[in-house]
Amino acid sequence: MEIYLVGGAVRDTLLGLPVKDRDWVVVGASPQQLIAQGFTPVGKDFPVFLHPVSREEYALARTERNTAPGYKGFAIHAAPDVTLEQDLARRDLTINAMAVSQRQLDAGGHFDPTRVRLDDPFNGRRDLQQRQLRHVTDAFHEDPVRILRVARFAARFSDFRVADETGALMRSMVAHGEVDALVAERVWQELARGLMEHTPSRMLAVLGDCNAMAHLLPEWIARRRDAADTAQELAGRLDLAAHWQTSLAVRYAISGLFMVDDEARDRVTARLRVPNDCRDLALLAAREHAAVAHSIVLDAPSLVQLLERCDALRKPARFADLLQVCAIMAQTRADEDPAGYAPRRRLLSALAAAQAVVTDAVARRVMASGLSGPDIGAAIHAARVEAVAAITADPNASSVS
Fold first, then answer.
1. Is the CB of residue 199 less than 8 Å from the CB of residue 242?
2. Model pLDDT for residues 61-107, shown as the tens digit of each residue
3. Which of 148, 153, 152 is nearest to 127 (CA)?
4. Can you tell me whether residue 304 is helix, strand or coil?
5. Fold designation for 1-124
6. pTM of the predicted model, to two decimals?
7. Of 74, 123, 152, 309, whose Cβ has the fewest other Cβ atoms within 10 Å?
């Protein structure tokens, strides 16, 4: 039995990047051997086991064969006679198809890139040096999710380019309808991860170059006369959002502002089963971003109405995300801090003033006068307007940064 460190941990170590997760492949072993050593089997579809101490995943070396068109399932063969090279051959990109024997690792699971003896049958280290994203074998076409993975890696490693032959293979896969068979969960998973990378625009560019965007997200910038300019602006805004390390919800909401209309946004949300926080912020941004931009000239009653429409008093964190979306959409320079966006400062000050109103005291005062129900709500609203009017009228009032 031989154990190898594989995949991203090897790649990132060679690139001088921190290693987040370690994946292991076990060659020449059976499930019974691993269980006898204290490993715990997980899942039903793959021969994967948890280490008894580290709880890291160890997978038996395996081969895979697509059993139906598109992404509908694979026949998996895991046995002691499967070689390391056969296991690496099933991987997506050469830069992810390298391995290091556990014998070369220190106690912490690290290795010295300058002295290591790599198992690199597909020249992954060469492609790292040449900044190439290249598929391992023609088996790449059996799994259309790999198109999304290539795009995601392009977003992570923005100075890497997709190899010509890999780009041609991806275009062929799209032309033959392979991406149409992808399930929504896998599409969203990869898109979400790509949006959270350092340069999301690269993901969009790669998907556009192979024509996958028209199949996966026709609602983005589709049917617009200025589609090319709009696509460029979307790419720039997403990269700004990445620069400021915003949440996934903020990045998705920004992308939603570039969809054709509300119906298109609803279709994407439903089709991809977008999480509720992303969906809700995208809807809120689409509805209120113009009002936020205009808020710098609003009076106190209008400011409170805007806060209430956005449910800012109950959900201040989501409101802060909305302001971040609007600030990034209004940025004119990459080094411009969204915190300096004037409507953001004004609305956060208004929100702080409205939050300072002691609603219980207002309610008790109204009830003491014999009123109840809607009158309490109206009195609280009036008190908030008064508080906001006081702070917006005073040029020396402190503002929230």
1. yes
2. 988 766 555 445 557 888 899 999 999 999 999 999 999 999 999 98
3. 153
4. helix
5. Beta Polymerase; domain 2 (3.30.460)
6. 0.89
7. 309
